[in-house]
């Protein structure tokens, strides 16, 4: 019952989303190349109102305005980097889903690689220690008592 | 036993990292405009037909630019602070930037508003709101379509900018101005800039 209701809710959300994007797309439909660029650019940009949506996906007031702004700049023949620059000077690097590599974002970009190296290093250390341990154990022959216990355990398994 | 200590240490470090991260306000996006000249505009002044105003008119003064709208709920919260600030009369002018008075109001279906009526309706609403809640502004300019708001990187009304004598933005505050923010952050900065 709950599942059915959730499903209906999800479907209704989907249909409104489809309707909303259809009305947006009508505006530039006459120029598919420009529309393509608008879509690509706005997928790179974060909507500051809803923060985890791109400007392409968001239907917040500001995202609608910014799409209009980008559309205008495309019409004026501005380049993609010009348009991204326009956004960054107003809203900061935060609008870019792929922030540029610089001092403050260095940890962000290098962090995963750094963690990978720490992991490899730790694993190498562990494996070295372990193989040394195994070598020590193998070098020592079993005592008479240990041999007897091992035989007893193996026999127990065979009997089962 | 010893080896478990560093696992515990790593876990504690992670907890500290997450605690700091979760306590940051994601709404507080540092504005790249701080330290840069206030973007130019030329907008109609509310209540004074055919008069326009821009940041260059404020050259030589330290002033505040406060972005507001009648539909903005948090503006209602900060408004008494601004009214009180202007009454105390310490000579710091506050310019209001009315942001998308009609278009920003989710309750208004813009398709039903005839184009030629948009501006008069916006003016009337803005004026009515100031009459009701008090007018702390030296003057208010009307950003009907939000174009100037984009130049100022406005994304959550209210927003307040501190602009120095040379027209450089010195501070931006997103969200309502509380008495605490006014007294602890804005006023000391204004005093410093007025030296």
UniProtKB/TrEMBL annotation, chain A:
The keyword Flavoprotein does not apply. It holds the Pfam family CcmH. One of its GO terms (biological process) is cytochrome complex assembly. Residues 12-154 form the CcmH/CycL/Ccl2/NrfF N-terminal domain. Belongs to the CcmH/CycL/Ccl2/NrfF family. InterPro entries: C-type_cytochrome_biogenesis (IPR051263), CcmH/CycL/Ccl2/NrfF_N (IPR005616), CcmH/CycL/NrfF/Ccl2_sf (IPR038297). Possible subunit of a heme lyase. The chain crosses the membrane at residues 104-123. This is Cytochrome c-type biogenesis protein. GO terms for molecular function: metal ion binding. The keyword Transport does not apply. Coiled coil: none annotated. GO terms for cellular component: plasma membrane. Gene3D superfamilies: Cytochrome C biogenesis protein. Residues 1-20 form the signal peptide. Keywords: Cytochrome c-type biogenesis, Heme, Iron, Membrane, Metal-binding, Signal, Transmembrane, Transmembrane helix.
UniProtKB/TrEMBL annotation, chain B:
The keyword Ribonucleoprotein does not apply. CDD domains: TlpA_like_DsbE. Pfam families: Redoxin. GO terms for cellular component: outer membrane-bounded periplasmic space. InterPro entries: Periplasmic_diS_OxRdtase_DsbE, Redoxin, Thioredoxin-like_sf, Thioredoxin_CS, Thioredoxin_domain, Thioredoxin_ResA/DsbE_sf. Its main location: other. It is found in: Cell envelope. The keyword Disulfide bond applies. Keywords: Cytochrome c-type biogenesis, Disulfide bond, Redox-active center. GO terms for biological process: cytochrome complex assembly. Residues 32-191 form the Thioredoxin domain. PROSITE patterns: THIOREDOXIN_1, THIOREDOXIN_2. GO terms for molecular function: disulfide oxidoreductase activity. Belongs to the thioredoxin family. DsbE subfamily. PANTHER family: THIOL:DISULFIDE INTERCHANGE PROTEIN DSBE. This is Thiol:disulfide interchange protein. It comes from Azonexus hydrophilus.
